[in-house]
Amino acid sequence: MRPATALLVTAVLLSPGPSRAGGQYELFGVNPRGKGMAGAMTAHVDDASATYYNPAGLAELTAAYGFVALAGNLDVVYVDLVHRLPLQDWRRPNSPENYAGLTLGGAVPLGGKFNRIIIGASAYAPRKHVLTVRTLDPAQPHFYFYEAQPDRYELLPAVALRVTDYVKLGAGLRMGGGIRGPTQSEMDPLLGRTTRAQFDGELYYVFAPTGGATLGPFWGFRVGATVRGPVQVPIDIPNTIHAAGADADVTLLFRANTNYTPPTGSVGVAWTGFMDKLTVAADLQYSWWSLAPDPSVRFVVDAAGADLGTVGLDDAVDTPQPGQERKVHLGFRSILVPRAGFEWRAFDDFLRVRGGSYLRPTPVPDQTTGSNYLDNHAWAVTGSLGVRPSDPVGLVARPVTLEASLQVVTLVERRVRKRDSDDAVGNYRFGGQVYEASVGFHYNF
Fold first, then answer.
1. Average pLDDT, whole number, for the chain?
2. What are the pLDDT digits (tens) for 295-350?
3. pLDDT at res. 412
């Protein structure tokens, strides 16, 4: 085998396969309290989960606060094809995994002359991975939101200022990460060995701003607004393989943009009454999904060198060839998500009962040609309980509140009819339910 040909075969064999394609907070919420109220927290939040819901809410705190919660979800979904595909066909629908993780957060006023400034942070850590990146081929049917979105770490630091007792402002960051770095290797195709290999990769920070404001209370009413910047996990890994003793190089460029969450803006109103026993809240959230980038893997092969040119492989094996680039036009729509929730405090705040609901329209258009990104209109019913048990032996200075939440998300069935009767996947229907539960506690110091 010629060195150039051996180099090409080796490069193909060593090329990376597909990597794993919003996040836990977008899909399910932060802590049991916010989840129980269906995320209608823009005007009402007053704990460390404000780092996500509305940073200005941190300014409601007058003492240190912390929470810890365990969360997990169960996906019970289906994709029924009209024409069954063989078991070995890679286009068979992919079912999302179930995920679990730990959420924790805290906030504290600076104290003294800076007592009107409160700093806080919250974080989500997946149980199995720091980050799951999964990008399936667009032609393979898979649930866009639930494939790997819940399985990535989240870190949100924030700071808030209590301008007056009725005006609060806040700002923060959403911290994510990207993966980049070249690999370089030299191979001897005749002897079948690697003579040099080097990887200069990094997991680097990706930042997105957050900000918000709240006004009130006025006659029991509070209003709030918040914005969050876009977050994604970029992947950029060029691989260069050089043939020892020959003028031949093959570069394999692997790129993808995964785990995308669009810019989002929310406005909310909350009312507290009945001697501070009842709070009712409502939010409107707008998400610019029309800005979503193509999540599919972009894979480029570029062969160069005089020896490859001699055998006619320098341009012949370049992929994609000019005019053959694979492009996926998502055509996603921006969506408006209404949310509503309540909290009832009873028995001198021993018990807190919460409930809520939200409706998330799907941003994904009908998949009539080519791609098979699956998503449904999602209707959620949520609830949570908070219990503050007595501490007769005085183990802690203040009572600990135990909390648990459950939400049921119904994915309204959707049917797909392909324009091309010869489409490899064909017509199908899909839907199901997603269950998410969390348990934890919070403590006011």
1. 87
2. 777 888 888 888 777 777 777 778 877 776 767 778 899 999 999 999 999 998 89
3. 97
Longest dimension (CA), the chain: 87
Is residue 351 left, alpha or beta, with left meaning phi > 0 and alpha meaning psi from -120 to 50? beta
Cα gap 410→39, rounded to integer Å = 16
Whole-number Cα distances in Å, 161 to 33, 114, 265: 23, 9, 20
List of residues 6+ apart from 86 with CB closer than 8 A = none
167-180 and 231-243 as β-strands: parallel, antiparallel, unpaired?
parallel
Give the pLDDT confidence of 116-149 residue by residue, as tens digits: 999 999 999 888 766 666 677 888 999 988 875 5
Q: Which residue has the tokens 């090409």?
A: 8
Topology classification of domain 3-444: Porin (2.40.160)
Phi, psi of 283 (to 5 degrees): -130, 155
Token pair 């092969």: residue: 301
In the block, residue with structure tokens 């200075």: 397
Name the DSSP letter for residue 83. S
pLDDT tens-digit map of 282-293: 999 999 999 998
Domain spans in the chain, listed from the N-terminal domain onward: 3-444
Rounded CA separation 215/224 (Å):
6
Q: d(Cα 156, Cα 105) in Å, to the nearest integer?
A: 9
pLDDT at 21: 34
Q: Which helix (H) or strand (E) holds 25?
A: helix 24-28
Residue 410 contacts residue 362 (beta carbons within 8 Å): no
Q: Is the pLDDT score of 2 beyond 50?
A: no
- 410-423 per-residue burial string, b: 16 or more CB within 10 A, e: under 16: ebeebebebeeeeb
